């Protein structure tokens, strides 16, 4: 089971939502993202939000089309996205995708990127990705990982989340590395590319953000 969570980011940054609609997938809407799902012909199982970004008429449509609506006051300690993600992680899915999580306000973007870190540190790790029309973002902890060519995401960047990444090694990349320490603030690993169908990256200490992008 994969849980797809759609927030209210700009429509022009959304990937094709129907490309993620496998039979076992569960769709969750966050605030205005619930309305976008309904208008796209996708049935949300759950909805989270204060719904301050929709009109009374739009809220009525949401209430009539969602199986379970979780409405909160705007004054709260968590964002609507965090509330939805906490619920999703509690379902023990194979993966969680965050869509509609980029564009618009930068503080919302940074908050959503921060949400990727906590699940990566949990003992029962559930992969969480942010995906938009041009990017896929996820977090990795120390280890060795395979990475494949993807026609939609040619460029691969590695960004330290912690103060430094130790032992970073890149194989089958245009710009390879061997056992390199990369400090926070470095642009050393921005916009790399695979030179084969598959490559590997590994590191021994730190938390690493992987960003796959296209122009």
Q: What characterizes the major β-sheet?
A: 9 strands, mixed
Shape: elongated
Percent strand equals: 25-35%
Unreliable segments of 5+ consecutive residues: none
Order of helices and strands: EEHEHEHEHHEEEEEEEE
Q: Over the alpha carbons, how many angstroms does the gyration radius reach?
A: 18 Å
Structure annotation, total helices: 5
Q: What topology, given as strand order, has the largest sheet?
A: 4-3-2-1-5-6-7-13-9
Q: What class do helices, strands and sheet pairing give? A: alpha/beta
Mean pLDDT: 91
Helix content: 10-25%
SSE layout and pairings?
Layout: E1 2-6, E2 26-30, H1 32-39, E3 46-49, H2 56-65, E4 68-71, H3 80-90, E5 95-99, H4 106-114, H5 117-121, E6 128-131, E7 135-140, E8 143-148, E9 155-160, E10 164-171, E11 177-183, E12 198-203, E13 208-213
Parallel strand pairs: 1-2, 1-5, 2-3, 3-4, 5-6
Antiparallel strand pairs: 6-7, 7-13, 8-12, 9-13, 10-11, 10-12
In short:
The protein is α/β, with parallel strands linked by helices. The protein is built from 5 helices and 13 strands.
